[in-house]
Specification:
Blueprint: E1 3-11, E2 18-26, H1 53-71
Antiparallel strand pairs: 1-2
Organism: Paxillus involutus ATCC 200175
Protein name: Peptide hydrolase
Length: 75
């Protein structure tokens, strides 16, 4: 699994708050990006099995690792 972590700024609508954000995606987000993300067609029950709970688990692992690294957690 190849994961691209894209750094960006997010602006909270209705406020003046601007904070750093990261968006994890597979592949090149500029050429093979999923056009259905965050829409009614953004589904994981596709017959080809590309998206599943096991697939989502890999992104959870990346997120937890990132949070631990960012937080400076040391045993």
């Amino acid at each position: 699994m190849c994961v691209v972590l894209e750094r960006a700024l997010t602006i909270c609508h209705g406020t003046a708050l601007v904070s750093p954000a990261i968006f994890a995606t597979e592949g090149d987000p500029f050429s093979t990006f999923n056009p259905y993300i965050h829409t009614a067609d953004d589904r994981m029950d596709l017959k080809d099995g590309e998206f599943s709970f096991e697939h989502a688990l890999e992104f959870v692992k990346v997120a937890v690792g990132f949070a631990v690294e960012l937080g400076g957690w040391v045993e």
